[in-house]
Task: inverse folding
């Protein structure tokens, strides 16, 4: 019986259910299949706006995808007018930045701003693109996502990149080939790697393995967008669905540490629900159930070990996570 006397790790970001959990009215299997279908979209058919809003609707069934997509189309049309005919990539980038962050007729004098009431995006609803469009208050998930949505539709080379507990934009200048970090929580101005490392501590090993500060592929961007579905599963205590969704996400982005850790945490919660709450001690677990308990424990340990092998550390990002550059 000593084989099942194991320690269980739980990722702090997924350890507890949020009081801001959103109601869910859909079948769990259909949710997994929807995430799988979106992540299987061929690269040349990927529509970031449609993908993000599809995930938003899985989290909040009241999301009006048709209306939000129409609003994004209107944004792009306005930005194209602002950039002017035959605009260069730099002119398009300036126009996107102006449209989002500066007050003017183009945005009804209501610029999009960093949400100081929920700066880290701890409320799931605030990570939704639909919420950002409606409230014009965003965080380090919704703000870079909208920027990449608009940049992609304008034909610019922009993608997402990660730091611990943070998402930002990497923009490649098509003239010079220079790649810039753009901090969308602060006007989408350039942010140096050193600034990101000071504000979101990470190991050299993690950077070398590409889990942080790397430009993500289109499919990896979709995987990052789908993380909100995982988070809402935790908020709703749907740990089995979380495991299945994480499996799908990790197939598209194998080194996505957040998904790895949340899946490991889901196994820990299943251990608690199915065993620890029922049996005072591991020795009380019926023999026929011991293999299940051991599988949960092994999966939990394996996933956390895998994240650590890639350079993740529990203290990653545990310094000031303030907006700015």
Result:
């Amino acid at each position: 019986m000593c084989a099942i006397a194991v320690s269980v790790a739980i990722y702090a970001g997924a350890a507890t259910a949020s009081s801001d959990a959103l109601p869910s009215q859909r079948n769990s299997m259909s949710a997994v299949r929807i995430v799988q279908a979106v992540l299987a979209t061929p690269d040349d058919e990927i529509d970031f706006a449609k993908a993000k809003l599809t995930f938003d609707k899985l989290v909040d069934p009241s999301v009006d995808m048709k209306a939000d997509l129409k609003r994004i189309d209107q944004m792009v049309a306005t930005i194209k007018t602002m950039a002017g005919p035959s605009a260069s990539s730099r002119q398009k980038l300036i126009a996107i930045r102006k449209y989002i962050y500066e007050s003017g007729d183009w945005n009804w004098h209501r610029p999009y701003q960093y949400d100081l009431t929920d700066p880290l995006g701890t409320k799931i609803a605030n990570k939704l693109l639909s919420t950002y469009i409606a409230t014009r208050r965003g965080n380090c998930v919704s703000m870079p996502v909208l920027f990449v949505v608009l940049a992609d539709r304008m034909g610019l080379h922009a993608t997402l990149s990660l730091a611990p507990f943070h998402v930002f934009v990497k923009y490649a200048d098509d003239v010079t080939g220079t790649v810039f970090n753009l901090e969308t929580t602060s006007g989408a101005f350039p942010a140096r790697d050193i600034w990101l490392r000071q504000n979101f501590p990470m190991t050299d090993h993690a950077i070398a393995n590409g889990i942080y500060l790397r430009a993500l592929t289109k499919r990896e961007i979709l995987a990052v967008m789908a993380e909100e579905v995982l988070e809402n599963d935790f908020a709703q205590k749907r740990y089995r669905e979380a495991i299945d969704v994480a499996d799908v996400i990790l197939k598209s982005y194998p080194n996505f540490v957040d998904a790895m850790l949340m899946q490991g945490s889901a196994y820990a919660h299943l251990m608690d629900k199915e065993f620890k709450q029922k049996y005072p001690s591991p020795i009380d677990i019926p023999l026929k159930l011991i293999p299940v308990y051991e599988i949960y424990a092994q999966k939990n340990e394996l996933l956390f070990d895998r994240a650590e092998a890639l350079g993740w550390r529990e203290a990653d990002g545990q310094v000031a996570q303030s907006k700015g550059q």
